[in-house]
Here is the input.
Amino acid sequence: MTITLTINEKKHVISADPSEKLLTVLRKEKLFSVKCGCQKGLCGNCMILLDDNPVPACLVPIGIVRDSKIVTLEYFKNDPCYQDIITGFNQAGIHLCGYCNAGKIFTAYGILKASFRPDKASLYSALRGLAPCCADSDSLAAAIMYAVAAKHTREGRHNAKK
Here is the structure.
């Protein structure tokens, strides 16, 4: 089957079995920020943005992403929100190991995108299941709140309400 999609702002035509996982296809495209982890959609190591929403690539069959926009961590590093997240992680003392970066960064992005001021319960719910290899949930929650503050500062929205 031939599938057309946009990966990191470039059109791609992929020939693949429709049941082949997006994780495998992206790795074949030499996008190595997409790591192979639990393959159950829980750890976040294969996280990508699919039409601007964080999803685990290990669960997505390539056949259902026709005409979709996919962003991997390699490209997301150019987004201003990436710097907000990294600023927050640095302020919280988190030094990512490299293996789990996509899951933690894209989960943070999803939270920043969804909520002007995320509450503690939504933070911990979103962080549940992520690979704990280099940061615990409490540190990640703090990092995301720092990232929220950095985003608000960059956007000049200190006192705005969503």
